[in-house]
Specification:
- The chain is mostly beta strands.
- The strands form three sheets. Strands 3, 4, 6, 8 and 10 form a five-stranded antiparallel sheet that branches. Strands 1-2-7 form a three-stranded antiparallel sheet, with no helix packed on it.
- The protein is elongated and about 55 Å long.
- Bound molecules: 2-acetamido-2-deoxy-beta-D-glucopyranose (NAG) (2 copies).
- One 2-acetamido-2-deoxy-beta-D-glucopyranose binds next to loops.
Length: 209
């Protein structure tokens, strides 16, 4: 089937791309003694996207990050549920409720360039602001070749991973830059599980484990 061939071609293309990134990219390595052990006051919620119906072989999920603190938060997108490559990096996993197997995902490892001077501007494109006691959300589409969801199958979706950088504006002072050492928090996150069915009576894409 076309979908299978497309899947393989795209995987190969992505592998080539990843190889290039590996050559030119810089790994993000944040010494653990530089990061704060304070917890990250962000909750991650997944919900079905209702304003628009899902199309065949794909799922749209609404991803909501809720700031449960009374301070403004700055979040580094990288590896978070709001990573612009979220469908490709496996931050959301899809498990078939029937077979218990995980839907294949590209599981790309993306290398990001750390700012040479060790801090982000608060206006950096990689930074998301979440106002105090407020939330941000994004509707994200998950489909081939990033994630292989089979038509007619029911999945349980869950977001899980590591916050790579979170800054909580609790100093009472104006923040201009976000330092990768000073006051940056890291930590784990896990969302709720949301169960949904990928619509489609017809033939599903040909997939192999
Ligand atoms: C963190 O550890 C590195 C390497 O072990 C060391 O060079 C650095 O001085 C430490 N930084 C702090 C703030 O302790
Ligand atoms: C951070 O908090 C301070 C004090 O509440 C506030 O004046 C400031 O606008 C906040 N945001 C930034 C980006 O500094």
């Amino acid at each position: 089937m076309v979908s299978n061939r497309t899947f393989i071609t795209t995987v190969v293309a992505f592998l080539a791309f990843t190889a290039i990134c590996l050559i030119y990219g810089d790994f993000v390595t944040i010494p653990s003694n530089m990061t704060s052990s304070l917890s990250v006051p962000i909750e991650v919620t997944l919900s079905p996207e209702t304003s628009e119906r899902s199309i065949l072989g794909s799922a749209k999920l609404c991803i909501t990050l809720t700031n449960i603190s009374p301070y403004e938060i700055f979040l580094l997108r990288w590896s978070s549920p709001l990573d612009l490559s979220a469908p490709s990096i496996g931050v959301v996993t899809f498990t078939s409720t029937k077979t218990g197997t995980k839907a294949p995902c590209l599981d790309m490892k993306i290398n990001h360039r750390v700012p040479p001077d060790g801090h982000f501007s608060i206006d950096d494109q990689s930074i998301v602001r979440i106002p105090a006691n407020d939330k941000v959300d994004a509707v994200v589409e998950f489909k081939e070749p990033k994630v292989a969801l089979v038509k007619g199958e029911e999945y349980s979706a869950k977001a899980e991973g590591t916050w790579m950088g979170v800054w909580v504006n609790e100093s009472g002072q104006k923040v201009e830059k976000l330092s990768m050492g000073d006051g940056m928090r890291t930590g784990e996150f896990a969302s709720n599980k949301v169960v949904f069915k990928v619509p489609g009576e017809g033939e599903g894409p040909e997939l192999r484990e």
